[in-house]
Amino acid sequence: MFGMRCEVETIELPGQQVHEGRVFPLALACRSPEATLAEVSDWLTAQRAQLLDLAAAHGAILFRGFPVRTADDFDAFIAALQLANFPYEESLSNAVRVVRTPRVFTANEAPPSVVIYLHHEMAQTPIYPSRLLFFCEQPAATGGATPLCRSDVLWQRLQQAEPAFAQACREKGLRYTNVMPAENDPTSGMGRSWQSTLRARTREEAERRLASLGYSWEWLPGGELRATTPVLPAVRKLPDGRETFFNQLIAAFQGWKDSRNDPSRAITFGDGTPLDRAAVDHATQIAESLTFDIPWQQGDVALVDNFVTMHGRRTFTGTRKVLASLIALDA
């Protein structure tokens, strides 16, 4: 992979995994210290199709040593890939984030002590991105890795380990319930207000949006809103025939806990029956065994295929600045 004054080569990362002959994640390093962002952008545009194919095949790509130093640089990096933007404001993400550019926002404003469990981005909603990009503006003093897990491999192993549970997930689908606050709550990993989430100024506007998406809902004291999704699939089939465990089951069951939300009530099968806690715990253990933690260095960029790979966030100390961007489905 070469471009004008932009030499790129594959590198190894400690702890990289191999699935079906492919490393996970793929890691690419820029070996041209004099390369400018404009030259890198030209390289990205020229290699766009190949990079997207590699991300789908490997699950994720880590770019290291590229001249990306600021949120604006990251925005330019994304623009060079010519991918359709999915603005945070238009998403149903339940995370509180701070917008930095039209394409770029903070990954999650939850406190450092909050674990964000493995999930596919917004798979708990009917509207989700196809890909994600992350940028390390400043790594944490300790911890703060972004764990990645190949969901297709997880699904294969889950079917072998918990066949009845896996079949129920496939056949019944899942429903998620989330209590949204009246105002953003940055102390929670899922503290985005219903006004922001639904782009609604009034209860009537919120109800119209929920109805259009097939949700059911209940208004609670203090202006909070409990919303339950329609039945959503737990498994996704990819164009190449692979199946992935595309959902937020682990995150919802293990991590949707704050002053408003109880994980035991956050998720059910599509028919309303409860999940088998032991089976979910087993799925979580399998996922953890398949997880690779991105060892963030300043300037790193990661491209994650949201249909193939789950992600999360480890706890950390110090200041951690990891920015994110979402790519729309038609990209």
List keywords for this structure.
331 residues, 22 strands, single chain, alpha+beta, 28% helix, four-stranded antiparallel sheet, eight-stranded mixed sheet
Walk across the major sheet and give the strand order.
1-2-5-6-19-9-22-7
Uncertain segments of ≥5 residues (pLDDT<50)? Answer: none
Sheet/helix structural class = alpha+beta
Mean pLDDT: 95
Radius of gyration: 20 Å
Largest sheet at a glance?
A: 8 strands, mixed
Cα shape? globular
Helical segment count: 10
Q: How far is the first residue's CA from the last residue's CA?
A: 23 Å
Number of strands: 22
* Residue share in β-strands: 25-35%
Portion of residues in helices? 25-40%
Structure description:
The chain has 331 residues and is α+β, with helices and mostly antiparallel strands. The chain is built from ten helices and 22 strands. The protein has an eight-stranded mixed beta sheet with strand order 1-2-5-6-19-9-22-7. Strands 8-20-11-18 form a four-stranded antiparallel beta sheet. Helix 1 packs parallel to helix 3, helix 4 crosses helix 10 and helix 8 crosses helix 10.
